Amino acid sequence: MSQTLVSGTSSSMSADRVEDREVDVFERLMRSSLKDVRIDREGDIHGLCETEEDVVHLLSNLRVHGYAYSVRRSAYYRQPPSGAAKHETGFFYSHTKGNIPIQFFGPVFCVESLVKRECTLGPLYHKKETLVADHLVDHVNPKKKRKVLMDTQKKGCPATFDVKCVRVFPDYAINSATDSSKKRVTEKLKRDLESTQVPKSYLRYYVAASQASRHNHGIECVKTIGHIHPLLSKEIRDIVAKGTNSVRIIKLELERFVEKNFTGENRPDRMNIMFYPTDSTIYSHMYRALFDLKKTVIDQDALRNQINGWEKESKAERFFFRPFTDDNGKVQPLLFCYQHK
Of the residues 48, 127, 230, 334, which has the maximum number of CB atoms within 10 A of its CB? Predict the structure, then answer.
């Protein structure tokens, strides 16, 4: 697939779509994070990352500005490990299949994985109900189904973010794409893979992302949904491990953490719940952290916190909790009572 450089993006967008300044931020982030950046005829941005951490860092920065992507399990592909001798593993000098073409750059490589991400507000995947003719309604056995209390937040956004991971063998290279020694070098690699000494290799990550204008929604829609950032989740665990179990204190510590670690244009605004989570989200992570740290689901501190939460949620229910104590051999067992009016 030939790639054509396109300079410039369309500036005529409706009010509910991504603004021009956000398009500039998106493209600037992609160009600063990727190597060998190019734009194809459809406007998709292509480039490569040297490590998986670079890909994760890029996705995190995009999430700050309202571009979030999720992986569909059916769109995930992985080759058998290249370290083992696998005859079905394909070796290439260029790979033009799919939407992430890889041009010739010298060494032989194989495709390790292909991960296809879609916008968090992407296509709707729920099955539509099959209509039954009126004269057959009384003869059809109704299927039991779960009642959906909340409508989907999907908006049918067509934007994608795909990553193709390849394993490169630098010691098995040729000078040009028309070199007649292709087959000989590939056969030597296959023989060496079957030996005890595994050939030297490294990973490369090729990225193809839809241009920002492909998103058919405002960026604020993404900032108000989604999960807490992994770094913040880890920070909550560290804070809880030090003995803090106050949501208010943890929230203040998280705000300081964000101000310290996310600066410049990657500084998220306060609408972005990925970096400024709600009290209930912080409480849930604190509660799980207590379970993980104590290595038990019958921990007294965790149970006390859970009861406090129940008491705030429902005034029609009553709880009594007496913790376990051991005072000089005088044991008082744990007692928990629940009453519903």
Answer: 48
Kindly report, residue by residue over 239-255, the tens digit of the pLDDT. Answer: 988 888 888 999 999 99
If asked whether residues 98 and 204 sit together in one domain, one would say: yes
| 143 located within any domain | no
63 vs 58: CA distance, rounded Å: 9
Q: Name the 3-class secondary structure at 286.
A: helix
**How many domains in the chain?**
2
What's the whole-model pTM score? Answer: 0.62
How many residues are listed for the chain in this entry?
A: 341
Residue 313 tokens read as: 């949620």
Is residue 95 left, alpha or beta, with left meaning phi > 0 and alpha meaning psi from -120 to 50? Answer: beta
Task: Specify whether the CB–CB gap between 80 and 114 falls below 8 A.
Answer: no
Query: In this model, does residue 198 exceed pLDDT 70?
Result: yes
State the greatest distance between any 2 C-alpha atoms of the chain, in Å, as a whole number. 86
Do residues 209 and 89 both lie within one domain?
yes
**Cβ atoms < 10 Å from Cβ of 167:** 20
